[in-house]
Amino acid sequence: MRAEAHVEAGICGYSAVVSAEAQDPLGTAALTLDTDCPHLSRLGKSFDVEIIDMVQGGCESEIFRELSAAVPAMHCPCPVVTGIFQVVRIAAGLSLPKEIRIALTKDKI
After folding, report:
1. Across the strands, what pairs with 15?
2. pLDDT digits over 2-24, tens only?
3. What residues are paired with 32 via a beta bridge?
4. 66-74 contacts: CB < 8 A, separation 24 or more?
5. What are phi and psi of 9, to 5 degrees?
6. How many CB atoms are closer than 10 A to CB 30?
7. Considering the entire predicted model, what is its pTM?
8. 30-89: per-residue pLDDT in tens?
9. Domain segments of the chain: what residues?
10. Dihedral angle, C-alpha 77, 103, 16, 20, nearest 10 °
């Protein structure tokens, strides 16, 4: 199964297209990351993710640690990281696709 996410990260202005393909929900997902973010670009255009580690480990998983290390602390959590986790789950058949939306506003005081 294959899943894809288009992420507009926010005020940084960077975007990403994340896709994952998985054959087995307990195996490996082939991840493709196309982004103009200089931080996330360091991870490469494609890499494998151990699905069971990501699902069981969540924020303690190896992939989360790698993603967190790539993004400066002030940008954590980056919405692209959420997109990566979601497409892997969907590709593995462990979640269903549904648009995620966060609308941020600021009130004048």
Report:
1. 8
2. 999 999 988 888 999 999 999 99
3. 19, 46
4. 67/40, 67/43, 70/39, 70/40, 70/42, 70/43, 71/39, 71/40, 72/39
5. -70, -25
6. 16
7. 0.88
8. 999 999 999 999 999 999 999 999 999 998 999 889 888 888 877 777 899 999 999 999
9. 2-91
10. 80
